[in-house]
Amino acid sequence: MMRAILLMPLVLLAGCEPPAEGEPVTRTRIDGKAEPQEQVTPTSEPTESVTTQVESACRSIIFEDTPLTHCLATPSRHTISADLGPSGGEPYRSLSAFSRTRDSAGIAFAMNGGMYDEDGDPIGYFVEDSERLQTLNTNDGAGNFHMKPNGVFFGSDGKWEVRSTDDFLANVTERPQFGTQSGPMLVIDGQLHPEISHDGESRLVRNGVGVDERGRAHFVISNAPISFGKLARFYRDELDVKNALYLDGNVSALWNPVTERLDTGAPIGPIIVVEKKEASSE
């Protein structure tokens, strides 16, 4: 897919948690019915057998009285890519628009993935189909994106990683097949981000991604407002993820075809797409 490299100047972050009065994300099903809220006791490490038994790559759990949806991508069963919009076109701006372009049978799930400007274009590093559409952003500034260290979620050929921006800049020399930059990091080398409090006053629907030592990508979206600290602790304490990245808040959305969940609401930017492999070798 070819698209002109984005050369526009950085503008105010439309994807960095819009004001509370902005349109909230609506949790919905394609058929219009309310999504069932299954409550499952969290475990320290979700097993891959859960994904196999229930078909869906996502499960509903409760962590410290907050409902979350945890979606697991496994290299042997899934591929991950980044998508912004149709070739030569404008960004999708919603999972609904994106869903109309894809066969749902092949999609495990999709989630908004990275911060963006008022037009929906990424403000940080973004690679789609090995084509770099935006360069790495190391600027200082206001907002969650610039709450350093921020980081990059990226991967090629089934090897997925989350690294801080400085780590990525210093050590990643080859362009990945996909990549998206966001911020702040939630967990860095097993430690919580130094500026994130235990359970701060800011509570929004939020989502993030982390990769465990087995190479599996853990995507989490809250189904109720959650603090940065609680989301970060879930990654560190329950999922045992050493590096996790905040994707966004208030605009956070998930498409899970198996359960017919298709979140709608405020416009989004980059999208992370997790697809099923035709056959599993595991």
TrEMBL record:
Domain of life (superkingdom): Bacteria
Record keyword Repeat present: no
PROSITE patterns in the record: PROKAR_LIPOPROTEIN
Record flagged with keyword Hydrolase: yes
Domain called Phosphodiester glycosidase: residue spans: 106-255
Region (Disordered): 17-51
Compositional bias (Low complexity): 40-51
InterPro entries: NAGPA
UniProt KW keywords: Glycosidase, Hydrolase
A molecular-function term among this protein's GO annotations: hydrolase activity, acting on glycosyl bonds
Sequence ranges of Basic and acidic residues compositional bias: 24-36
Official protein name in the record: Phosphodiester glycosidase family protein
Species whose genome carries this gene: Qipengyuania xiapuensis
